[in-house]
Specification:
signal; 6 strands; Chorismate lyase; 7 helices; 6-stranded antiparallel beta sheet; Chorismate_lyase_/UTRA_dom_sf; alpha+beta; 26% helix
């Protein structure tokens, strides 16, 4: 079941530097995730958590810092620190509407950066980022070219704001029409199956002069729920 695409609709429902080589992405062995049982209580808890994370992302300009707080609050790693792991490879083409969204001409250079944002062994988000280098400082461009520092931390001196274009729940723990069902299953030994990506945000970042300088598409993974559900803790 898909949600309404607009972030405003979501906000009504409920008030994402060390340098690593590309090969390390494949060497990363995720820790076994705690078991979420496929029962009504776990499904309701998972939905509430996804809506809470979505609301946090919508209400703060930096997805990186939001994920760092989320990691710390849910003890996903010994240290709540987000590391951006660069994904090297072919650049994705700029989306057709992006030049209008970034308010740039047909010949304005745009750079592409893809990263995985990880906290400990958990990859929480995969982000595609198209940005206008002429609207960043020389130091920022150098840092983006030569390090794995998260984009949001690099451009923090711009005191940027974030305009959400869409916020979409890619997976709902509750089946469609659950509210009309006589009852949900109360208990089962089965494990709740989760897809790789559970939430997607599209946003444009603006500097203090209200100039757009970045288009981001962030795909949040089910690893954001890689902790023991509260209802099943001893």
């Amino acid at each position: 079941m898909r949600s309404v695409r607009r972030g405003t609709a979501w906000s009504c429902v409920l008030g994402l530097g060390s340098s690593l080589l590309f090969s390390s992405l494949h060497a990363r062995e995720p820790e076994p995730s705690p078991v979420w049982h496929d029962d009504a209580t776990s499904r309701l808890e998972a939905l509430a958590l996804l809506q809470s994370l979505n609301a946090e992302l919508l209400s703060h300009p930096s997805a990186t810092l939001t994920l760092e707080r989320w990691c710390g609050e849910h003890h996903l790693a010994p240290e709540a620190k987000i590391i951006a792991e660069r994904v090297q490879g072919e650049d994705k083409p700029l989306p057709p509407e992006a030049r209008n969204q970034l308010q740039i001409g047909a010949d304005e250079p745009v750079r592409y950066r893809r990263v995985q944002l990880a906290c400990g062994q958990h990859v929480l988000s995969e982000a595609d980022n198209w940005y206008v280098p002429s609207r960043l400082t020389e130091a920022m461009n150098h840092q983006l070219d030569t390090s794995d520092t998260p984009f949001g931390k690099v451009v923090q001196p711009l005191h940027f704001r974030r305009q959400t274009l869409s916020a979409e729940l890619l997976w709902s723990p509750l089946p469609q029409g659950w509210e009309n069902a006589a009852a949900l299953s109360g208990s089962t030994d089965a494990t709740l199956a989760m897809p790789q990506h559970v939430l997607e945000h599209r946003a444009v970042l603006f500097d203090q002069s209200n100039r757009p300088f970045s288009l981001v598409v962030e795909s949040y993974t089910s690893q954001v729920l890689a902790f023991t559900p509260a209802m099943t803790r001893p």
